[in-house]
Write a structure and sequence with these properties.
Length: 371
Amino acid sequence: MQKRNKYSEIEDFLADESFQLWILSKKDDQNWEEWTVENQKRAKLVENARLLLLAMKVANSDLPPSKIQSALESTWRKIEEKEIFQKQTIRSKVAFLHKYWLAGVAATLFFAFLSVWIYENNFVRTSNVVTYNELIEENKEGLVEQTNNSDKSQIITLSDGSSVLLQPNSKLSYPKIFTGNERKVYLSGEGFFEISKNPKKPFFVYANEIVTRVVGTSFRIKAFPDQQNVEVLVRTGKVRVKSNELIASSNSKEVVLLPNQALRFVRKDLVFNKITDITKDEILVRNVGNIEQLSFEFTDIPIAQIFETIEQAYLIDIDYPKDKLKDCHLTTSLSDQPLSEKLRIICKSIGNDTTFEMNGNQIIITSEGCN
């Protein structure tokens, strides 16, 4: 699989059976999509190879004879130049080209521009793509990367107490300790964020081509590298979203989102679509999780029921002494609080001798009973 890191010519990709399978049959067993978007220059080379391969599948053409003749003449000139160059360098590659591709390249090249329309309408423009790896390279701090390769969401607790519910096939990079006057993290995939309030130290989430800025709130970001759109949905508080400065045509315009509002960023066109009523958007409604639907306002509610609500929201397990806490009730507001702060408030309300310990998706409560 590592041999493709050395590919420098279009022919290298055309000769790779797994590449052909990915382009022609949409079967990506070798993770071509993820590998491609990791590097902007690589993405351009892959795109050129893709156009050639797709062009060979074009059945008919309405092009006038003059254009076909012109394209053929230009194509053969390129082939002759390439053949001379190849003979001077690597004999084996020339033999390969003679055997498999020279006969087809002439017909392929003049059809290639027919695939441009497909590319423009179905793929992100390479010049505007911002990848997760590029974002990481821009950061000069030492970052910790958490990758969720499981089929369940994972809880990540940051040094400031903020929590992130990281979804499967997603990853988050963040510093061990936030320094300076900003807090920055980098997301690839999907995560639900609950940010500790600190007006003097705003929190930034970099995800593909957008930057989300908050002080203290809860929201979801969905930014997978192989999808056309980036989505931001606000549960509580207020967030500000703008284009990443790495985009060539980026501007400083910000979109402000309030609770139950969302934004869909169309990566191909660099367009922000604000959604003021998320209940009318079928895609958003379909993807809303437990943590965004459940209420964390409790009035004289048994502790067991509160723990059950938290388990459902975060998809975690809470181990606590049920017999000692069976008669405990609690009245409190836990909305707009990160998971660690929710647990701290609950433990303090139960009694001074009540503590909690977080170990991944497992929470252990230690207590001698209610006050």
